[in-house]
Specification:
mainly alpha; two-stranded antiparallel ribbon; 3% strand
Length: 351
């Protein structure tokens, strides 16, 4: 039997996709006119060859925000789980992130100033009532949940929000990587919402909006990229994925499985930098995608490999029970350890 909501789902993706593609030329022109471009130099993390406009985060922000505001205004989705106060807070927090990112793209802010904007965004949504209130019980019956004490839930939410934002921030090193992973993660958040949430839930529709926006942007962000996300865009994507996965509490594990390898890579790199007595925010080539490049894989091959891993673990998580998802998290950790070990061994052989 045909799903009557299919056409709305398709229209939501198409509208945000078209809006995103229409905005890219305008944002590129503005960035070039104001010299907000990323210029290739001797910096460790820059692998592009030509000056490339930044501010791509404005494309994602405008396409996503305009679409979801219109959807709410015309009552095309069920926003009962996202009260108006929280809805406004998410958008306001997104504005804070994108403004902070713009300032960083223009003036190259030091890390202690960059982090002010993500922290402010987290505070805004927490004050509006967003926090992890429960999780599914991996050892209980299907559908059973475990309630979390409010302040403990807030603490976990802070770690989750900041962790996701900095995962996408640090992941943004190759053309199309973050925007493509965002498409995959948004798709799985939507698919989970079909099983868990009420029909036409706001979280599911918002995920489709983000998916369409990132997909439209990906066309211009694919190698060789004509525009970069910039600081605001990479952090904004992590923020929106984290927020959508928290609402109703059922999508965190699935999102973690999709984002697991990048998240574990960020943890590994930060620990490695701290052990070397370096700033955790210092730029280098210790991230997984740079180590894969050092072994001779092309940028496109690395991006597709990380896409494949994200889709694979996301698919397994989608069809698994809560207990199965818990096992998959441990498998993900094991894959990261094995992959890092193999890369280390092969790197020594190359040397």
């Amino acid at each position: 039997m045909e799903n009557p909501n299919f056409y709305l789902y398709f229209a939501v993706i198409l509208a945000s996709f078209l809006l995103s593609t229409a905005l890219v030329p305008l944002i590129r022109l503005y960035a070039r006119k104001n010299n907000i471009v990323d210029k290739p130099d001797a910096a460790a993390r820059k692998v592009h060859e030509l000056p490339t406009p930044l501010l791509g985060g404005w494309v994602i922000f405008l396409a996503t925000t305009i679409s979801i505001v219109l959807i709410r205004y015309f009552h095309l989705a069920d926003f009962s789980d996202i009260p108006l106060k929280l809805f406004i807070a998410i958008i306001f927090a997104s504005i804070v992130i994108i403004i902070g990112g713009t300032l960083d793209d223009k003036y190259n802010l030091p890390p202690y100033q960059q982090i002010i904007f993500p922290i402010c965004a987290v505070i805004i949504v927490l004050v509006a009532g967003l926090h992890i209130g429960f999780i599914t019980n991996p050892l209980g019956e299907s559908g059973s949940i475990i309630y979390i004490a409010k302040y403990f839930g807030i603490a976990i939410s802070v770690l989750w929000l900041l962790g996701m934002m900095y995962t996408t921030k640090f992941l943004d090193g190759l053309d199309g990587l973050v925007s493509g992973i965002a498409v995959i993660a948004s798709m799985f958040i939507f698919l989970v919402s079909l099983n868990w949430d009420k029909p036409l839930s706001a979280t599911g529709i918002w995920a489709l909006v983000l998916m369409g926006s990132c997909l439209g942007f990906l066309i211009f962000n694919w190698q060789p990229a004509k525009i970069f996300l910039g600081e605001g865009g990479s952090i904004l994507i992590g923020f929106l994925l984290a927020v959508l996965s928290i609402i109703t509490g059922s999508k965190i594990t699935t999102t973690l499985l999709v984002m697991g390898i990048p998240a574990l890579d960020v943890i590994w790199v930060i620990v490695s930098r701290l052990l070397s007595r370096k700033s955790p925010f210092s730029g280098d080539r210790k991230h997984l995608h740079y180590r894969l490049m050092a072994l001779g894989l092309s940028k496109a091959q690395i991006v597709w490999l990380l896409y494949f891993i994200a889709i694979g673990f996301g698919s397994l998580g989608f069809i698994s029970s809560s207990y199965g998802k818990m096992i998959l998290v441990f498998c993900l950790i094991a894959v990261m350890i094995i992959l890092s070990t193999l890369l280390k061994v092969k790197a020594k052989k190359v040397l």
